[in-house]
């Protein structure tokens, strides 16, 4: 669930993280009302990490970093196994990013230890 606000930035409090805890969040500067190509200084590989029980992490980044032609990547990994993510999805807009984050939360919150 996304909680609506009057702000057009990507605020961590706008999401229901279920059992997750925000460890790192640097999406606040992203302004949904502006083209992403005009915000490349804020488009980094390390944008957010949300930690879940059982060593699960939801990770958000922009690849390639600072490139106007890049895209967001949302991953869910367990026990640092980046080679075999539980979930990985590319997003090219902030709307797609929100949908990808919500799907990542659903998967991260529902996983059991391997």
Descriptive account of the structure:
The chain is an alpha+beta fold and 114 residues long. The protein has one domain (12-110). It has 1 helix and 5 strands; from the N terminus they run E-E-E-E-E-H. The chain has one helix at 94-110, and strands spanning 21-25, 48-52, 56-63, 71-78, 87-91. It has a 5-stranded antiparallel beta sheet with strand order 1-2-3-4-5, covered by helices on one side. A hairpin with a 3-residue loop joins strand 2 (48-52) and strand 3. It is globular and about 40 Å long. Residues 1-6 have low confidence and may be disordered.
Sum up the overall morphology in one term. Answer: globular
Low-confidence stretches: 1-6
* Radius of gyration of CA atoms, rounded to a whole number: 13 Å
**Count of folded domains:** 1
- The overall pLDDT average reads 91
The helix-strand sequence is EEEEEH
Class from secondary-structure proportions:
alpha+beta
- Percentage of residues assigned to helices: 10-25%
> What proportion strand?
25-35%
Record the SSE blueprint.
Layout: E1 21-25, E2 48-52, E3 56-63, E4 71-78, E5 87-91, H1 94-110
Antiparallel strand pairs: 1-2, 2-3, 3-4, 4-5
List keywords for this structure.
single chain, disordered N terminus, alpha+beta, 5-stranded antiparallel sheet
Summarize the structure.
This protein has about 110 residues and is of the alpha+beta class. The chain is globular and about 40 Å long.
């Amino acid at each position: 669930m996304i909680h609506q606000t009057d702000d057009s930035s990507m605020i961590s409090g706008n999401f229901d993280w279920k059992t997750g805890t925000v460890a790192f969040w640097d999406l606040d500067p992203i302004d949904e009302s502006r083209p992403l190509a005009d915000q490349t200084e804020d488009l980094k590989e390390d944008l957010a990490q949300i930690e879940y029980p059982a060593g699960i992490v939801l990770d958000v980044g922009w690849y390639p970093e600072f490139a106007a032609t890049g895209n967001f990547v949302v991953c869910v990994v367990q026990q640092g196994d980046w080679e075999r993510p539980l979930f990985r999805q590319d997003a090219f807009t902030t709307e797609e990013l929100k949908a990808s984050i919500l799907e990542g939360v659903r998967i991260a919150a529902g996983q059991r230890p391997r």
